[in-house]
Amino acid sequence: MTIWTRLLALCLVVPVAACGGGDDDDGAGDGDGGGTGSGDGGGDTVDAASPDAPEVQFSFFVTSLATMRSQSGSQDGFGGNLGGLAGADQICQNAAAAVGFGHKTWRAFLSTYNNGSPIHAIDRIGQGPWYDRNGRLIANDLAGLISGNRPAGDAQTVNDLPDENGTPLTTLGDSHDVMTGSTTQGRLDGTSAVNTCNDWTDAGAGSPNAVRCGHSWPAQSGAHWIRAHQLRGCSPGVNLVQNGPGTGTSVGAGGGWGGIYCFALTP
């Protein structure tokens, strides 16, 4: 047996460390022993999923048709009964959680009459900035949200506001109506609870042309994202076909499903 064969046999029965080629006994070499080496023991390599990796900026969306159907348990959605502001906030929270952002605090962009002490949508959503699911800027601040017909952000997204999945609403058809109950300044638009589907607790027929909605994308019937026209009523319903003002008394009659805007309090 040659000397090389004898050495090989020895390495097979003696702990591997005894046959290592490193000169250092503290495990800081280039092998598997850890330390600061380049092996598999946890050197200086940064994992792509490291906690230090920046979080995606996502703080705005329109509630999708899918989440409104799923959360309401009805193919017609909620109508005007969202469970009040607290219920509407929870709808936003649930929709965000379904796409991995439930750790943020979300608020519905809705105003209420509140027995004569109005709560204004613009006061509920933090200070900005806000970004869509694709990381595109909606607006830097409150002034940017209400500076014109569309928020002062990335033109590609503000002219076709997307849902929680980042999908622009135009992909679903005539889908622009989004409930707000608000003026162009994000304040209550009306003088009673009739103008807010009884502060978002009423899914009955309601009063025609009383509740204000905005447009997620500019349409012939209105370009403003908060205040475009009034809804036909407060009952549940979905309509994705362009037929003018629509028929019936549903929140979706004019084109949509009674969706709402959701904002996170942090970017």
Give structural attributes.
alpha+beta, 17% helix, 267 residues, 8 strands, disordered N terminus, 6 helices, two-stranded antiparallel ribbon, globular
Plain-language structure description:
- With 267 residues, the chain is of the alpha+beta class.
- Helices cover 17% and strands 11% of the residues.
- The protein contains six helices and eight strands, in the order H-E-H-H-E-E-E-H-H-E-H-E-E-E.
- Strands 1, 2, 5, 6, 7 and 8 form a six-stranded mixed beta sheet that branches. The chain has a two-stranded antiparallel ribbon with strand order 3-4.
- Strand 3 and strand 4 form a beta hairpin.
- The longest helix is centred in the middle third of the chain and has 15 residues, at 84-98.
- The radius of gyration is 28 Å and the shape is globular.
- The model is unreliable at 1-54 (pLDDT under 50).
Set out the fold topology:
Blueprint: H1 3-13, E1 60-62, H2 65-72, H3 84-98, E2 106-108, E3 130-131, E4 137-139, H4 142-145, H5 155-158, E5 177-179, H6 197-200, E6 212-215, E7 229-230, E8 256-264
Parallel strand pairs: 5-8
Antiparallel strand pairs: 1-8, 2-8, 3-4, 5-6, 6-7
